Amino acid sequence: MSVFFPLTPHLSASPLVLKKPRSSGRELRAPMDQGMIDVEGGRAVRQRSGAGRLAAVVAVQNLLVVACLLVTVYLCMKSPALPEDDVYIQFNELRDLKANTSLKFEVIREQRRLENDKGNISISCTGPYVWHMLVCYKSMNQGNLSGNLVLQVANTPVNSVRMDAIEQTVCRGLHSIVYLKERDVASFHLYSPKGFWMVNVSMGLRYLLGNNCDY
C-alpha cells in the first residue's frame, strides 16, 4: 500500500520584504530643480542688490564732482582781480623772424612803471621778473638748428632761452626768472644761424612783487 504525503511549499523564515515601486526620473529631478531655482533666485537677488549699490556709489561720485565744480566757480568769481597797478608789460605777436635780429615789439598792455620804446623796456622797479613767452620755430634746412632768445641790458645778456629746431614746426610755452634793476633798459634779441626760422613769438614781463617797488 502506497503512502502519499501532500507536498507543501517551503516557507522561508525571513520576513517578506515588499519592494517599493520605482520612482520616475521626473520625481527625482523635482527637488534638484527646486534647489537650483532657489540658488539662481538668490543669485539674481544678490546681483540686483550689487547693481543697486554700484548705482548709488556712482550717483554720490557725480554729486561730489558737481559740488567741487560749483565751489571752484564760486571761488574764481570771488577771487580778487589783479591790481591795476601791478607792474607788467605784454607785447604783440611777431611773425617770420629769421637769422639774427632784434625784436621790435609793440605793446598790447602795460603798466606805467614799464615803458616801451621800440622794443627797449625801461625798468622802474628793482627785483625779480618772470619773462614768459610763446614761441613757434622750425629748421629750414635738413639738419637740426639751435637758436637763442636773449634778454639783454646795455648789450649784456641777462638771461636766454635755447630753442632746438627741427624740420617740423615746434611750439613751446617758456618762462624764466630774471632780476632787473631800476633804470635798466631791457631788450630782446634772437641769435640764430641761417636757416633757423622763428614762425611767431609773443612775450611779456611781470614783476613778481606786485606793486611794491621798494625792494
Explain what this protein looks like in three dimensions:
The protein has about 220 residues and is an alpha+beta fold. It is about 25% helix and about 40% strand. It contains 1 helix and 12 strands; from the N terminus they run αββββββββββββ. The strands form 2 sheets. Strands 1, 2, 4, 7, 10 and 12 form a 6-stranded antiparallel beta sheet that branches. Strands 3, 5, 6, 8, 9 and 11 form a 6-stranded antiparallel beta sheet that branches. A hairpin with a 2-residue loop joins strand 5 and strand 6. The longest helix is centred in the first third of the chain and has 54 residues. It is flat, with a radius of gyration of 45 Å. The termini are far apart. The relative contact order is 0.18. It comes from Ataeniobius toweri.
Secondary structure layout plus pairing:
Layout: H1 25-78, E1 88-91, E2 94-98, E3 101-102, E4 107-110, E5 114-117, E6 120-123, E7 127-139, E8 145-153, E9 156-165, E10 170-180, E11 185-191, E12 196-207
Antiparallel strand pairs: 1-4, 1-12, 2-12, 3-11, 5-6, 6-11, 7-10, 7-12, 8-9, 8-11
Protein name: TNF family profile domain-containing protein
